[in-house]
């Protein structure tokens, strides 16, 4: 089977073609960073309009790069949620229309399931079961993954996600959008120990996260009358250290709680180099192994949607003719693959 996949949940327009025998044949992406930078964040209406402009040319490009025609495809997969509802609807409408016109089955994919399965694109993919740390601008959660569609959320953030804490700190420091990567670069120039920001919820048992207190502590430090702007790099270093230490500690705690020895890290914050280095070292000390998708597949992309779509289409799942999209969609509501039939 060969699948065309479309991703449009936020501010990346992406299309990919995945073949079950030959692997990933193409993946193309248009980022809207320049469009939203002037506003300091994603403007949903502008994101939706740009998806309308970009997706059809990207479909043509992905098919050309894959040396494929619609006749070569066995299905169309698309992100149906969670995400910005207008952005989701543009991708869903195009995907369902293409599938109908080409006489192909379609499948609606959960955005977070795509992130969880992104490491399966690597040459040495993780096996099941494992623990996944899914960490991005909108989500921070630990998930026990027993198989495709078999997800048990172990803990998640009560408020801000880790990526949101990175971005809001960057904004406080006057860094350009997108703030997370800019803050990580600035942190390389910072001095350790100048700012000892709190490690949220590490002083209590459990696997939940909370980053709103950290954000408040940073805001108070930066807005203090005696704050020296020359210490921005020290603040960045302190924030990154606090977030990474929290994620590492909770991830190891999840491995201990489940008795598993394989950890998968996915989502945009998974590209953070300090997180990768510290987590890999900490996991190795307890005899565990960590898997990461390559950097380009940490952020939103259609290749991860293709992985989930191919698996579910092969299992016999199909979406109906409705153009389906939802801003909120609980991850643990997904059905395991053996429960075949019509998708939600």
Instruction: Report mean pLDDT, rounded to a whole number.
Output: 94
Question: Class of the largest domain, according to the CATH hierarchy?
Answer: Alpha Beta
Strand composition percent: 15-25%
CATH architecture of the largest domain: 2-Layer Sandwich
Distance between the termini: 22 Å
Order of helices and strands: EEEHHEHEHEEEHHHHEHEH
Instruction: Please give the number of β-strands.
Output: 10
Which percent bin holds the helix content? Answer: 25-40%
Low-confidence stretches: 340-344
Structure description:
It is a single chain. Helix content is 40%, strand content 19%. With 344 residues, it is of the alpha/beta class. The strands form 2 sheets. The chain has a 5-stranded mixed β-sheet with strand order 3-2-1-4-5, with helices on both faces. Helix 4 packs across helix 10, helix 5 runs antiparallel to helix 8 and helix 6 packs across helix 8. It is globular. It starts with a strand and ends in a 30-residue tail after the last helix.
Summed up, what is this model?
With 344 residues, the chain is α/β, with parallel strands linked by helices. The protein is built from 10 helices and 10 strands. The longest helix is centred in the last third of the chain and has 27 residues.
Descriptors:
10 helices; 344 residues; 2 domains; Nucleotidyltransferase, domain 5; alpha/beta; 5-stranded mixed β-sheet
SSE layout:
Layout: E1 2-7, E2 12-19, E3 23-31, H1 33-37, H2 44-65, E4 75-81, H3 85-102, E5 106-110, H4 111-117, E6 130-135, E7 140-147, E8 150-156, H5 162-172, H6 179-187, H7 212-222, H8 232-258, E9 262-266, H9 273-285, E10 289-291, H10 302-314
Parallel strand pairs: 1-4, 4-5, 6-9, 9-10
Antiparallel strand pairs: 1-2, 2-3, 6-7, 7-8
Helix pairs in contact: 2-3, 4-10, 5-6, 5-7, 5-8, 6-8, 7-8, 8-9
């Amino acid at each position: 089977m060969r699948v065309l996949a479309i991703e449009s949940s936020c501010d990346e327009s992406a299309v990919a073609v995945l073949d079950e025998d030959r692997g990933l044949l193409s993946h193309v992406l248009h980022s809207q960073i320049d469009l939203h930078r002037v506003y300091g964040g994603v403007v949903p209406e502008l994101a939706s309009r740009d998806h309308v402009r970009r997706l059809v040319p990207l479909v043509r490009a992905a098919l050309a790069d894959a040396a494929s025609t619609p006749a070569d495809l066995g299905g169309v997969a698309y992100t149906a949620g969670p995400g910005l509802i207008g952005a989701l609807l543009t991708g869903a409408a195009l995907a369902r229309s293409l599938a109908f016109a080409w006489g192909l089955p379609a499948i609606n994919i959960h955005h977070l399931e795509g992130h969880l399965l992104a490491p399966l694109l690597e040459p040495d993919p993780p096996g099941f079961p494992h623990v996944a740390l899914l960490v991005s601008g909108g989500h921070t959660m630990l998930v026990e993954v027993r198989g495709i569609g078999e997800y048990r959320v172990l803990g998640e953030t009560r408020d801000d996600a880790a990526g949101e804490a990175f971005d809001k700190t960057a904004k406080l420091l006057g860094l350009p959008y997108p703030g997370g990567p800019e803050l990580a670069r600035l942190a390389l120039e910072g001095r350790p120990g100048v700012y000892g920001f709190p490690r949220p919820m590490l002083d209590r048992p459990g696997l939940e996260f909370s980053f709103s207190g950290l954000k408040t502590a940073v805001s108070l430090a930066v807005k203090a009358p005696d704050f020296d702007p020359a210490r921005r790099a020290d603040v960045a270093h302190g924030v990154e250290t606090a977030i990474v230490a929290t994620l590492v500690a909770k991830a190891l705690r999840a491995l201990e709680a489940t008795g598993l020895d394989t950890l998968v890290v996915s989502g945009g914050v998974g590209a953070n180099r300090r997180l990768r280095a510290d987590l890999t070292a900490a996991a190795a000390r307890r005899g565990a192994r960590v898997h990461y998708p390559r950097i380009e597949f940490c952020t939103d992309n259609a290749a991860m949607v293709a992985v989930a779509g191919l698996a579910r289409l092969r299992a016999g799942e199909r979406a109906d003719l409705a153009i389906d999209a939802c801003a909120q969609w609980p991850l643990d509501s997904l059905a395991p693959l053996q429960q075949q039939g019509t998708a939600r």
